[in-house]
Design goal:
The complex is a heterotrimer of chains A (299), B (327) and C (324). In chain A, 72% of the residues lie in helices and 0% in strands. Chain A has 299 residues and is mostly helical. Chain A is elongated. Chain B has 327 residues and is of the alpha/beta class. Chain B has an 8-stranded mixed sheet with strand order 6-7-8-3-9-10-12-11, with helices on both faces. In chain B, α3 runs parallel beside α5, α4 packs across α5 and α5 packs parallel to α6. With 324 residues, chain C is mainly alpha-helical. Helix content of chain C is 78%, strand content 0%. In chain C, α9 runs antiparallel to α12. The termini of chain C are close together. Classes of the chains: A mainly alpha (299), B alpha/beta (327), C mainly alpha (324). The interface between A and C is large, with 48 and 60 residues.
């Protein structure tokens, strides 16, 4: 009870600092706009077959035309509605970004806590591994895997991005754990006979979680960008429309110099969505005490 | 001629609730070749005085009132660039070295040299080396350590290097802000001896700022005791130590343990009534004073001159000797 | 520890990492669905040629022997034959390497230098209009979607305004004729400007943001106060003391963000049809040219690791406190 009220109070003060920050406000507003777009994509099947982002071809058009009352942003090269594809794409972007960031945060947090808490040889091995994974270019790895295993489905992509992008999180969580380890309450619970697993999950984890959530916003950004790049190159999940795939179509169908109504929206959406996650992250960064962190920001 | 005259200096910090006075109506003078010590608890405004003398107050601080006369120039009226030319050349500062007062990626010798380059005419590199070598000699660092980086120095050596830097341009006044606080007692003693030796040699004036009255008393003939932004008692070392009047001075001396007084030490309890929130008129000291008078609630006490060198800011006329700390 | 031992340790570390990558790749090629032989030997070859190649790569031998041959082949520069070019992979990718290095190193260096310079100004004038404009633009640059931004550059500066060619590295008509060296150089530069500008804009933002935050924390350090107390001019304090310390973390981050830069580099090469390794990799993957894809991948890994080594050495050289 007392813990909960303390938590809500802490949350409300943090929220006040957060919302005062112009970056945080703008980022959150943009995020809500995109979330609304993603939710709206669920309504598409009820509007009419013509507006299905993947199969809904306008029989009167069948090629790319500019914006009109029927197609707000125009149609693509076989007459599908671009606006509907855009809505569908925001859903995919959210799924990819959040799911992949969540997995990498889980891996990174566990590795970071274990590494920082255990120290010694475990720490050294885990951090070496993190260093190694950190220097690998994720897009290039995904490309070679796509070459070998054929078209990847969306969940495979999500998972692969996650396991390539945990090291930055692990490093930050590790340094936080190291400083927590020095605090008396950890020592006290060790003296009281708590097991290592219990100390890690009961005492250390609650203290590193805010930081982990902060880094999740940065991971979302990079996951969305990697998935979009992969789709743009034509190695995305062919069963899912994503913004990267829309750009791929506009490019490979030779419309990029003729159809700005088609070229602009997906790119603006990707850039704005990643920007808004990034802005939210920066604002959260100011809420959390920056002195707690010693490592640099991930790219 | 008086080297430094500070008149009614008042410095405030902008805060969310308005201006907060950190230094309140402070006046003092320093003669050439003498040294003045400031003692007080953290937050009493002693460091702010040092920063005001250097013209290095933080952005949110303002000099609200008063003058700082170095010889005959008023430092509060100088342009930032004129002030910069005085800094280091005429007024120098010694910081606490343990807190990274030296730039970790620049060789120590270079850090001394750049100061000389800034304030003086060009000289050949051989002359410069000789100059730095003599400075290092003065503060007791082996000359061959000139080209080392700060992390290769011990704490005491870093402090010596900081002193060498302050003396590089032969300033007339040196402000030493807690110069020995982070050092262990033996090194602290060596550094204080070094400062005394240098002062005798160079005839530089010192302003010595510390929370440790014993340190100040070793170096300075004159001592100002500060509390809550005001000088509450000022006098020669002997006057302050032998006939302390102000209750805060007495507490400071009382909390300084010697074999003689260790039985009598007693820091008074916080006076509950005056410690209440919202109680803000009267003497700021009243909340921890051991025997406040009724006058103390009425208003802030004025400055009372006891002798040409001794003065105090307290309503109490006299204090019977020996009746001090026991109840 | 002395410098050469440090150098040796770093090199060894990266060499081990490269070996791990090499090994993982070997097993990935054998784990993937389908027949590994068809992945390394062009299905179009005559049976005799195919048999010779299988023999040479040991594809009919047990896995351990195959692995030994694979490692030996790699270190003797034998990476197999590209299906598409019908040439040794090593020859193909080595001819692409200079193009990639030219574009990649120039853009990374320029972006890092400009980022450090602008970040320094931004932090020094914190809260000013300049700072606001710089930080916001840096934020936007940092989150731009690379392929889209490259397409926009191509569309606006290449197609609409027409200042730059739409792709490639040279104009063939200039090279067939007996052109002077000068004209050829200018021609390459002309082709390079647009991809260079794209990569520069994409990377400068993150370096600027990093330098800015690093500089802000350095400006709070005690030695900056000391420097001011010494009466040094603002310019000396900013450039000599603050920026020197603040740029150290930026150097580290150049190494850490190389992976990110490689991704962006590959996409940029693809869009501007710049004949580099990244584009070759994408081409190989799209056309199931497995030996070529493997070669490109290994070369990219080698480039990233060597660049990391250079960054580590640079850092050690800049920071006297480093423990070798």
């Amino acid at each position: 009870m007392s813990y909960n009220s303390g938590f809500t109070q802490r949350f409300s003060t943090s929220w006040k600092i957060f919302i005062k920050n112009p970056l945080g406000k703008a980022g959150l507003a943009l995020l809500m706009l995109f979330a609304f777009m993603a939710l709206a994509s669920f309504a598409l099947p009820f509007i009419g077959d013509m507006y299905d982002p993947m199969t809904g071809v306008d029989p009167l058009v069948l090629h790319s035309v500019g914006p009109s009352a029927v197609h707000w942003l125009g149609t693509d090269f076989i007459g599908r509605d671009i606006f509907c594809q855009l809505l569908e794409g925001s859903k995919i972007a959210f799924i990819v970004g959040l799911a992949s960031a969540f997995i990498s945060i889980v891996i990174g947090t566990v590795v970071g806590m274990v590494s920082g808490y255990a120290g010694g040889i475990v720490d050294m091995l885990l951090m070496r591994l993190a260093d190694m994974v950190m220097v690998l270019p994720s897009l290039v790895i995904l490309l070679i895997i796509a070459a070998l295993f054929g078209q990847l489905n969306i969940w495979m992509i999500v998972f692969l991005i996650a396991i390539l992008r945990w090291p930055a999180v692990a490093r930050v969580i590790r340094s936080q754990t190291l400083s927590l380890k020095q605090r008396p309450f950890i020592e006290a619970s060790r003296v009281a006979g708590a097991s290592n697993v219990r100390i890690i999950f009961k005492h250390i984890m609650p203290n590193v979680l805010p930081l982990a959530f902060l880094y999740m916003t940065f991971r979302v950004t990079s996951a969305i960008l990697v998935e979009a790049s992969l789709s743009f190159l034509g190695f995305g999940d062919p069963g899912q429309i994503s913004w990267g795939m829309m750009l791929q179509w506009v490019w490979s169908s030779g419309h990029m110099f003729q159809a700005p109504y088609w070229l602009l929206p997906p790119g603006i959406c990707i850039s704005l969505l990643t920007l808004s996650f990034y802005m939210v992250g920066r604002a959260m960064d100011e809420v959390l005490d920056p002195r707690l962190r010693k490592e640099g920001k991930p790219s | 001629m008086t080297l430094l005259t500070v008149e009614n200096l008042t410095v405030g910090y902008k805060s969310a609730t308005g201006m907060v006075k950190a230094v309140d109506d402070v006046s003092f003078t320093i003669e050439p070749g003498t040294s003045l010590g400031f003692v007080g608890e953290s937050g009493c405004g002693k460091t702010t005085i040092g920063m005001a003398l250097m013209g290095l107050l933080p952005d949110n601080a303002r000099i609200l009132q008063g003058r700082i006369l170095l010889s005959d120039r008023d430092l509060t009226r100088l342009s930032p660039d004129d002030l910069r030319k005085i800094r280091g050349k005429e007024v120098a500062m010694i910081f606490q070295a343990a807190m990274n007062a030296l730039n970790p990626v620049v060789r120590v010798g270079e850090q001394v040299a750049e100061m000389i380059v800034t304030h003086q005419d060009r000289m050949s590199s051989a002359d410069m080396d000789a100059r730095i070598a003599s400075l290092f000699d003065l503060v007791g660092i082996p000359q061959d350590r000139m080209h080392d980086y700060p992390h290769q120095y011990s704490g005491g050596m870093k402090q010596r290097a900081v002193i060498a830097m302050a003396l590089a341009c032969g300033p007339r006044l040196v402000i030493a802000d807690e110069p020995t606080t982070a050092l262990d007692v033996v090194v602290q003693d060596q550094i204080l001896n070094e400062i005394l030796k240098i002062q005798a040699l160079t005839h530089t004036s010192f302003v010595f700022i510390s929370h440790d009255i014993a340190v100040v008393a070793r170096v300075c003939r004159h001592i100002c005791v500060m509390y809550d932004g005001k000088i509450v008692e000022a006098g020669t070392r002997e006057e302050v130590f032998q006939t302390p009047i102000h209750p805060y001075t007495r507490q400071l001396l009382g909390s300084y343990l010697t074999l003689d007084n260790c039985k009598n030490v007693r820091v008074p309890d916080i006076n509950v009534r005056r410690g209440e929130k919202g109680w803000n008129q009267g003497c700021a000291m009243a909340r921890v004073c051991e025997s406040p008078l009724d006058d103390c609630d009425g208003g802030s006490p004025g400055w009372r001159v006891l002798s040409p060198t001794h003065g105090v800011r307290c309503f109490k006329k006299s204090i019977t000797k020996g009746a001090s700390w026991e109840k | 520890m002395n410098r050469s031992l440090f150098l040796f340790k770093k090199t060894l570390e990266l060499f081990i990492l490269f070996f791990l990558i090499l090994t993982v790749l070997f097993f990935l090629f054998r784990l993937a669905p389908g027949d590994p032989v068809t992945r390394m030997v062009d299905p179009m070859l005559t049976p005799e040629d195919a048999a010779h190649l299988i023999e040479q790569m040991g594809l009919d031998k047990p896995l351990t022997t195959q692995y030994m041959i694979y490692v030996k082949n790699f270190f003797t520069g034998n990476l197999g034959f590209s299906f598409h070019y019908g040439e040794p992979v090593a020859r193909v990718i080595l001819s692409r390497l200079p193009c990639t290095l030219l574009l990649f190193t120039t853009s990374t260096l320029l972006a890092a230098l400009a980022g450090i310079f602008l970040g320094k100004l931004s932090a020094w004038h914190k809260g000013s209009r300049l700072d606001g404009v710089l930080s916001i633009s840096a934020l936007v640059c940092h989150t731009l979607f690379v392929p889209w931004f490259a397409l926009m550059m191509l569309w606006v500066l290449g197609f609409q305004v027409g200042w730059f060619p739409l792709g490639g590295i040279i104009s063939p008509e200039l090279w067939i004729a007996d052109s002077s060296f000068m004209i050829k150089t200018l021609d390459v530069l002309h082709h390079m400007l647009l991809p260079l500008l794209t990569l520069f804009i994409i990377h400068v933002g993150s370096y600027l943001l990093l330098m800015r935050s690093s500089m802000l924390s350095v400006l709070k350090e005690d030695y900056i106060l000391t420097a001011r107390a010494k009466g040094l001019t603002d310019r000396v304090i900013r450039n000599g003391h603050a920026a020197k310390n603040a740029s150290l973390p930026v150097v580290t981050s150049v190494g850490l963000s190389l992976a990110f830069s490689i991704n962006g580099g590959a996409l940029t090469e693809q869009i501007f049809t710049w004949p580099g390794i990244g584009r070759e990799l994408i081409f190989a993957v799209s056309n199931n040219d497995y030996p070529l894809a493997q070669g490109c991948f290994l070369l990219i890994a080698a480039v990233v690791l060597s660049a990391n080594l250079i960054v580590d050495l640079l850092y050690a050289w800049l920071d006297p406190r480093i423990h070798y």
